[in-house]
Amino acid sequence: MRFVISYVSTAIRELHQDEVVNILEETQIRNNKHGVNGLLIYTSGNFFEVIEGEKIRITDLFKVIKEDPRHKNIILIFEKEVDKPLFKDKDANFISENTLHRQMEVENFLYYIKDLDEGTQTTVKNILKAIATNS
Ligand SMILES: Cc1cc2nc3c(=O)[nH]c(=O)nc-3n(C[C@H](O)[C@H](O)[C@H](O)COP(=O)(O)O)c2cc1C
After folding, report:
1. What is the model's pLDDT at position 95?
2. H or E element at residue 127
3. Which segments within the chain are labelled E, that is strand?
4. Which of 91, 92, 96, 121 could form a disulfide with 42 if both were Cys (CB 3.0 to 4.6 A apart)?
5. CA-based angle 2:129:91, to the nearest 5?
6. Tell me, what's the pLDDT at 72?
7. d(CA 125, CA 131)
8. Can you give the pLDDT at residue 90?
9. Which residue of 4, 23, 27 sits with most ligand 1 atoms within 8 Å of its CB, as the best mutation to test the pocket?
10. Predicted pLDDT at 98
C-alpha cells in the first residue's frame, strides 16, 4: 500500500544556502535509493515536505524526520493511503528558493495531488500560497 505524509516545520534557525542544499541533496539521494517520492520546499525558515512510498517506509521515515534536530514545530498536514503514486516521475522532486535543484512548478504539483480529497487539496494550496507570498 502506498502512503503519503505531508508536513510543515520550522528550521531551528535561518539556514545558510549551503545548509539548505545539503539537506535537499541528502534527502534526494536517500529517497531515490529507498523508492520514496516527494517534494521538499524550504523558504523563509520553513520547510514543506511531501513524502510518498511504501507505508512502513514512510511512517518509519517520518519518525526519523521528526527527531531531526535541524527543525522543530513539525505540523502534520495530512497522512493517507493512496492507491497510485502521487508523483509520476520515479525520482523524487525537490525545489527550494534560490537553488538549482530540479525545478518543479507548483502547477505541476497541484496536478499530482489531484486525487486527494478536496479539503486536503485546499489546505495544500493555501500552504503553497503562503510559502509563495513569504519568499
Ligand atoms: C526538513 C527535513 C526533511 C528531511 N526529509 C528527509 C527525507 O525525505 N528523506 C530522508 O531520508 N531524510 C530526510 N531528512 C533527513 C533525516 O531527518 C535524517 O537525517 C536522515 O534520514 C538520516 O537518518 P539516519 O541518521 O537515522 O540514517 C530530512 C531532514 C530535514 C531537516
Report:
1. 61
2. helix 118-134
3. 2-11, 37-43, 46-54, 71-82, 93-94
4. 96
5. 35
6. 96
7. 10
8. 53
9. 27
10. 47
For residue 53, report the distance from its CA to the centre of ligand 1, in Å.
15
CATH at 96:
3.30.70.100
Lining ligand 1 with CB less than 6 A are 9, 23, 27, 30-31, 38, 40, 47, 49, 51, 61, 64-65, 68, 70-71
d(CA 49, CA 70) in angstroms, rounded, equals: 14
Q: Ligand 1 centre and the CA of 75: distance in Å? A: 16
Distance 52 CA to ligand 1 centre (A): 14
> Tens place of pLDDT for every residue, the chain, 135 residues?
889 999 999 999 888 888 888 888 888 889 888 888 888 888 778 888 989 899 999 999 999 999 999 999 999 998 988 877 777 665 556 665 544 334 455 566 677 677 788 888 888 888 777 766 654
Cell of 125: 494550496
In this structure, the residue with its CA closest to atom 10 of ligand 1 is 27
Ligand 1 centroid distance, CA of 101 (Å): 17
Domain that holds residue 61: 2-134
